[in-house]
């Protein structure tokens, strides 16, 4: 297989994309922090179903990590990632060093209001500002027709959609379905941190969440279903719960009543030893009995 071309500067990235544009080709972007798995590769497939060429970016963005988080030990394997991307049909890898993305003179940050505030915004206050800033840069550096993000990071997807809408960025945001292991665990680069014992526990999260979804869709009251899920998560062996919450998909407001009238998302963030896991599932009002 031909090795994937890798570019590390914005001018060289733009020259490559401009050459495609002159041929009349459309271009899509898959932003990543590397340590790729089948979820990322499905986003390449999604982009290639809509665009002639796919650029993936690989940048472990320091601005979205708090000082106590795992920036230093975040898994890195550029050569392995490039091989996976090439096999998936990606055409170009943009892997800038930190000084290209954030030179010493860098002093801009982007804050997306509203949808950034709850859940991840409360637990990781630096996170969405860092994500919005780097995604805005990546979109402006590559000016793609479309960019793809996974529903696994559902609140992030909403933040990016709001960023693009508020700043009138001419890019279509595509959402890729969550890709799961055989026991249903959502694929994540951070799953590599799990010990064998933790990995067995991790597979319970999606099962417990699906049970809560089924209970709510069957007409069960929301608060008891969420409380039951929290209790089951603790019993399964998870070491902490940041949240188990039901939000409506449109405004991303918490659903505080038992009247589920519009599409909603059940979202959870839990701790398992040193590893934080998140997941989410749709909850459909029509499915209620
Ligand atoms: O989802 C991720 O991997 C990251 O948050 C992203 C969107 C690549 C920004 O660094």
Verbal overview:
- The protein has 289 residues and is an alpha/beta fold.
- It folds into two domains: 6-176, HUPs (Rossmann fold, 3-Layer(aba) Sandwich); 189-280, Pantoate-beta-alanine ligase, C-terminal domain (Pantoate--beta-alanine Ligase, Chain: A,domain 2, 2-Layer Sandwich).
- 38% of the residues lie in helices and 19% in strands.
- The chain is built from ten helices and nine strands.
- It has helices at 10-22, 38-50, 78-88, 98-101, 120-123, 127-142, 154-166, 196-202, 204-217, 222-236; strands at 6-7, 27-32, 53-58, 92-94, 146-150, 172-176, 240-248, 264-272, 275-283.
- The radius of gyration is 19 Å and the shape is globular.
- The mean pLDDT is 96.
- Bound molecules: pantoate (PAF).
List the defining traits of the structure above.
three-stranded antiparallel sheet, six-stranded parallel sheet, Rossmann fold, binds pantoate, alpha/beta, 289 residues, Pantoate--beta-alanine Ligase, Chain: A,domain 2
Quick overview of this protein structure:
38% of the residues lie in helices and 19% in strands.
Uncertain spans, ≥5 residues at pLDDT below 50? none
Strand order of the largest sheet: 1-4-3-2-5-6
Task: Name the overall outline.
Answer: globular
Give the count of helical stretches.
Answer: 10
The CATH class name of the largest domain reads Alpha Beta
């Amino acid at each position: 297989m031909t090795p994937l071309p890798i570019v590390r500067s914005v001018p060289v990235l733009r020259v490559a994309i401009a050459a495609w544009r002159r041929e009349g080709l459309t271009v899509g972007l898959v932003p990543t922090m590397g340590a790729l798995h089948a979820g990322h590769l499905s986003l390449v497939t999604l982009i290639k179903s809509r665009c002639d060429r796919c650029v993936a970016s690989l940048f472990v963005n320091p601005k979205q990590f708090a000082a106590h988080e795992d920036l230093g030990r975040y898994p890195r394997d550029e050569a392995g990632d490039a091989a996976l991307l090439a096999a998936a049909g990606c055409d170009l890898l943009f892997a800038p060093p930190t000084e290209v993305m954030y030179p010493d003179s860098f002093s801009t940050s982007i804050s997306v209001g509203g949808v950034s505030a709850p859940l991840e915004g409360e637990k990781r206050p630096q996170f969405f500002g860092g994500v919005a800033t780097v995604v805005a840069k990546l979109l402006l550096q590559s000016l793609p027709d479309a960019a793809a993000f996974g529903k696994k990071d559902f609140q992030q997807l909403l933040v990016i959609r709001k960023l693009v809408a508020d700043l009138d960025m001419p890019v279509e945001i595509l959402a890729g379905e969550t890709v799961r292991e055989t026991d249903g665990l959502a694929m994540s680069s951070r799953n590599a941190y799990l010990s064998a014992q933790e990995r067995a526990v991790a597979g319970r999260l999606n099962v417990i969440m699906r049970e809560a979804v089924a209970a709510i869709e069957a007409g069960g009251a929301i608060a008891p279903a969420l409380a039951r899920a929290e209790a089951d998560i603790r019993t399964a062996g998870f070491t902490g719960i940041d949240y188990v919450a039901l939000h409506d998909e449109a405004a991303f407001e918490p659903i505080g009543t038992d009247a589920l009238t519009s599409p909603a998302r059940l979202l959870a963030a839990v701790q398992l030893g040193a590893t934080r896991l998140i997941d989410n599932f749709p909850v459909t009002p029509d499915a209620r009995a």
